[in-house]
C-alpha cells in the first residue's frame, strides 16, 4: 500500500475516534445536567426527601416487587411524603392520612388526573374508560353514566334476580363438591364474573364463551399483573414507541379476547332490537339506548361503551373475588369471628332458609368483617396513581406537574398511630357506624376518595356481602389434612392471596332442597 493510502486510512480512523469521543462527552454532559437538575433544588422549590439514585435510572434498580410493603419501609426513613426518581419519571409516595387529605380533598381538582401507564392505554381503548380518562367533560359524562344510571341502587335493584340466580348456581356447585377440596378464590371469581356478565348483557361466561371461566381468570390476572409491573415505557416516555418489554403488545392481545366477546354480544343485541325483540333490563341495553339518545356536547361513543364494559369485567372481578377470598381466609383463621358471624346469620336468616340480599342490611357484624378485610387487604393497595395538572405544594413540599402520585392506603390502614393492634384481624373495630366507604376519613378509604373515588362501591358491597354471607351460612369449611392457612399477599395493582385458599365444604342448612 502506498504511504498516501496509509495516511488516508489513519486520518479517517482518527476522525471517527474523535467523533466517538465527542458523542461520549455530549452524553456525559447531558447525564451531569440531568443529575444536577435532579439533586439540586431549584430556586423557590423544595422537593420531598428521598433515597439517592443513580444517573439515568434513578431508584429503578432498588425497587422491590412488593411495592406496597417496600414503600411502607421507605416511609420509616424518609417520612410520610417522599420522592423516588424512576428513570425520567418523578414519583411521589404518600403514607399518611393528613397528606392524603391534602391530595384527595384540599387539592382534589389538581390531582384528579391519572398518569396512564402504557399497558393501561392498551387495555382501555386508548384510555377511554372511567378509570383512565383525563378529568374533564368526557370523564364527567362517563361518571354520570356509571354512578347515576348504570351503578345506582335503583338500577342494581332492577337486576337483583340475575345476581340471585348466579349465587344459587355457585351454591349448587359447592354442594356437588361436598367433602372434596375446592379452590375458593377460583370459584368466587367465576361467580363474580358470571354475576357481572349477567348484569351487563344477561348471559354468563359459559353461555357466551364456551365455558372459559378458568381461562378468563388467567387473562384478567395477567392484565392486572401487567398494570402493576414496572415498565420501561412508563419511566422513559421517549422509548414508549419501541415497547421494549412488550407490555403494550401483550396487553393489547389480552384485550382483544374481551373485545371479540363485546363485539359479539353488541352485534346480537343490535340485531334483536332490529327484529323487535323485547327490551332487556341489562346494562348493555341501557348503554346502547344512552348512546342513541346521546348528549350532543359529549356523546357516549361505541368506544366509550366497550371501555365501560372492560372496566366492569376486569375491574369488578378480581377485586371482589379477592376480597371474598381474603375474608374467608381471615375468618377461618379466627374461629371466634366465624362463630359470631354465624350466630348473626342464624338469627337473621335461620338454618331453614337461604341468604337473600334483603337480609344484608341486618348483618352489621358481617359488614364489619368485610370492612376489616378491606382495611388489612385493600383491593388497590396503592390506589390508581394520580397526576397533578399543575405544580403545587403538599405537605410543605413542591410537587411538580406531571409527577406520578402513589397513595399507600395499605400502609395507612396499618399505621399503629391510627389503629390499635393494626396487624390483628378484629371486626369489632368497625361496629362503630362512623366508618364507611365515602373516603371522608383518611384513616380508612379502601375505595379511594374525592372525584376519582371508585364508581362501583355499591355493586362491590352487594356482591361481596351476598357471596360471603352465603358461604358462611350454607357451609362448614375445613382445610385439607396437613394444610396450613396462609394469609400472605401478592402485590399487584390488585392485591391477591399469594397461596390460594383451598377448603372442603360441608352442608349446614336443614333442608337439602335449599342447595338446589
TrEMBL record:
The lineage of its organism: Eukaryota, Viridiplantae, Streptophyta, Embryophyta, Tracheophyta. GO terms for molecular function: heme binding; iron ion binding; monooxygenase activity; oxidoreductase activity, acting on paired donors, with incorporation or reduction of molecular oxygen. Keywords: Heme, Iron, Membrane, Metal-binding, Monooxygenase, Oxidoreductase, Transmembrane, Transmembrane helix. Heme binds at residue 454. The chain crosses the membrane at residues 20-40. It comes from Rubus argutus. Its cofactor is heme. This is Uncharacterized protein. Gene3D superfamilies: Cytochrome P450. Belongs to the cytochrome P450 family. InterPro entries: Cyt_P450, Cyt_P450_CS, Cyt_P450_E_grp-I, Cyt_P450_sf.
Amino acid at each position: 500500500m502506498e504511504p498516501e493510502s496509509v495516511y488516508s486510512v489513519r486520518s479517517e480512523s482518527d476522525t471517527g475516534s474523535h467523533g466517538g469521543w465527542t458523542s461520549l462527552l455530549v452524553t456525559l454532559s447531558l447525564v451531569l445536567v440531568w443529575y444536577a437538575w435532579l439533586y439540586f433544588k431549584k430556586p423557590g422549590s423544595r422537593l420531598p426527601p428521598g433515597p439517592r439514585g443513580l444517573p439515568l435510572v434513578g431508584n429503578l434498580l432498588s425497587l422491590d416487587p412488593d411495592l406496597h410493603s417496600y414503600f411502607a419501609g421507605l416511609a420509616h426513613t424518609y417520612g410520610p411524603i417522599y420522592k423516588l426518581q424512576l428513570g425520567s419519571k418523578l414519583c411521589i409516595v404518600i403514607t399518611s392520612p393528613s397528606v392524603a387529605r391534602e391530595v384527595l380533598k384540599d387539592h382534589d381538582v389538581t390531582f384528579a388526573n391519572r398518569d396512564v401507564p402504557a399497558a393501561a392505554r392498551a387495555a382501555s381503548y386508548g384510555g377511554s374508560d372511567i378509570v383512565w380518562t383525563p378529568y374533564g367533560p368526557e370523564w364527567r359524562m362517563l361518571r354520570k353514566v356509571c354512578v347515576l344510571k348504570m351503578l345506582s341502587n335503583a338500577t342494581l335493584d332492577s337486576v337483583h334476580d340475575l345476581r340471585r340466580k348466579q349465587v344459587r348456581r355457585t351454591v349448587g356447585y359447592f354442594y356437588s363438591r361436598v367433602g372434596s377440596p375446592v379452590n375458593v378464590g377460583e370459584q368466587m371469581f367465576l361467580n363474580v364474573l358470571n354475576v357481572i356478565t349477567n348484569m351487563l348483557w344477561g348471559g354468563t361466561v359459559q353461555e357466551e364463551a364456551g365455558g372459559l371461566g378458568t381461562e378468563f381468570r388467567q387473562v384478567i390476572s395477567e392484565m392486572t399483573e401487567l398494570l402493576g409491573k414496572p415498565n420501561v415505557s412508563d419511566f422513559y416516555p421517549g422509548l414508549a414507541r419501541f415497547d421494549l418489554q412488550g407490555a403494550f403488545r401483550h396487553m393489547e392481545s389480552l384485550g382483544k379476547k374481551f373485545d371479540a366477546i363485546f363485539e359479539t354480544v353488541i352485534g346480537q343485541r343490535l340485531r334483536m332490537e332490529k327484529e323487535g325483540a323485547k327490551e332487556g333490563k341489562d346494562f348493555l341495553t341501557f348503554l346502547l339506548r344512552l348512546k342513541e339518545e346521546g348528549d350532543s356536547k359529549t356523546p357516549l361513543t361505541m368506544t366509550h361503551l366497550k371501555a365501560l364494559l372492560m372496566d366492569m369485567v376486569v375491574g369488578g372481578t378480581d377485586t371482589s373475588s379477592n376480597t371474598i377470598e381474603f375474608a374467608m381466609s381471615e375468618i377461618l383463621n379466627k374461629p371466634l369471628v366465624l362463630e359470631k358471624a354465624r350466630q348473626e346469620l342464624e338469627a337473621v336468616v335461620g338454618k331453614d332458609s337461604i341468604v337473600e340480599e334483603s337480609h344484608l342490611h341486618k348483618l352489621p357484624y358481617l359488614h364489619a368483617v368485610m370492612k376489616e378485610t378491606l382495611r388489612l387487604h385493600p383491593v388497590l393497595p396503592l390506589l390508581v396513581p394520580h397526576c397533578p395538572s399543575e405544580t403545587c405544594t403538599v405537605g410543605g413540599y413542591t410537587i411538580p406537574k406531571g409527577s406520578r402520585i402513589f397513595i399507600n392506603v395499605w400502609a395507612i390502614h396499618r399505621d399503629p398511630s391510627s389503629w390499635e393492634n393494626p396487624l390483628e384481624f378484629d371486626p369489632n373495630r368497625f361496629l362503630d357506624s362512623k366508618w364507611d366507604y365515602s373516603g371522608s376519613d383518611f384513616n380508612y378509604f379502601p375505595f379511594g376518595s374525592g372525584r376519582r373515588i371508585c364508581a362501583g362501591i355499591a355493586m362491590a358491597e352487594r356482591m361481596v356481602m351476598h357471596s360471603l354471607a352465603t358461604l358462611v351460612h350454607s357451609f362448614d369449611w375445613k382445610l385439607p389434612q396437613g394444610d396450613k392457612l396462609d394469609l400472605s399477599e401478592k402485590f399487584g395493582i390488585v392485591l391477591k392471596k399469594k397461596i390460594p385458599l383451598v377448603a372442603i365444604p360441608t352442608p349446614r342448612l336443614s333442608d337439602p332442597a335449599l342447595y338446589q
